[in-house]
Amino acid sequence: MNIMIIGAYQSVYYLCRLFLSKGYKVTVINRNQEECERLAHNLKATIVHGDGSDPQILEEAGANSADAILAITPNDQDNLLICQLGFSHFHIPRTLAVVNDPDNEHVFRKLGVAAVSLTRVLSMLIEQQTDFDDITNLFSIGEGKINVTEVVLSTSSRAVGKTVQQIGMPNGSLIASILRQNKPIVPSGSTQLLDKDRLIVVTLPENHGEVLKILTSDQI
Amino acid sequence: MLKSSKSQYHIVIVGCGRLGSLLANRLSAQGHSVITIDNNPHAFSNLSTEFSGFRIEGDATEFSTLEKAKMAQSEIVIASTSDDNVNLMVAQVAKKICNVSHVVARVFDPKKEATFQEMGIDTICPTSIAGQVLLDTIAESLTKQAGEKK
Q1: Residues of chain B neighbouring A104 (CB-CB closer than 8 A)
Q2: How high is the pLDDT of residue B1?
Q3: E runs forming strands in A8-134
Q4: Beta strand B102-106 with B122-124: parallel, antiparallel or unpaired?
Q5: pLDDT digit string (tens) for A128-160?
Q6: Domain B10-125 of CATH type 3.40.1400.10
Q7: Interface check A80 vs B, CB under 8 A
Q8: Which parts of chain B sit beneath pLDDT 70?
Q9: Is pLDDT above 90 for A108?
Q10: For a tag on chain A, would you pick the N or C end, based on fewer CB atoms within 10 A?
Q11: Beta strand pairing status for A146-152 and A135-141?
């Protein structure tokens, strides 16, 4: 696989090392002469010095035969144009842009460019690292529009001993099923929650925090 | 002068350098409602005292800045920053996301001009225009000289 990466030294170097170790052929385009020299010295990749959003430079770097192009410069405007040139001009089958402003993720998508915000991914990972070991984020659907979470009830939880109806789950949230001593239960409003119940909870971003609070806060 | 049936347009000008401020001053003097955006607050000193529009300090590649400038409610957007790629991005957002009807981007690099046009963005390339005017001037001068020699 032929991969083309456009970006600054720090972000390119480790990624490039990883791709090379997998046996991919990598071409890097970088604007900075000094960084190019360091990359050429440290990596067995083709290093091209120049503006990666310049169609001529892309062509010289072999964009016509690339299988994938990755735009990870610190400038969103450059990443957008690089990817657009990649697919519209050079017909590269896979293009991916890293966006610096998380809002640009949806802007890029509307303009037809696949984009990822590392800031958003990082913040999601941090938010998922809650203090409770008894909460596991199973998966999310539609870029986090719906979250499915597993919550294990502990003795101290306020919800223990109450029925589903009594704990007052907010609108748009749902306890989809309960695993009690390894037996699955589909709960109704009158189902009583017990210690060590494993709940599979479906939430929306706006009620996620509230649901976790209801299920995990200690009894007063 | 912008000639049309309408007397007042909502215009967003991105980049308040020499070109951006010139346009902002003129369009504002003509009675249009103008919003200028620049990430450098000092750039707004290029605006004349008669400029009656708004100044927004911010990065035009951040969608929130364009929202602040109410780009979706504007009828004309001019992208005139010193960075071709910023202009292309702003122009695309204006046209394809904010659905602005009249969008023009300035592009310095003639090589990129073709790409921009492929993407359906109207462009003005000062380099190409200056080059053409220069060649025309020389050609004119040469014909004149040839005529004098006859």
Answers
A1: 61-63
A2: 60
A3: 25-30, 46-49, 68-72, 94-99, 115-117
A4: parallel
A5: 665 556 777 788 887 778 989 888 888 888 888
A6: no
A7: yes
A8: 1-6, 150
A9: yes
A10: C
A11: antiparallel
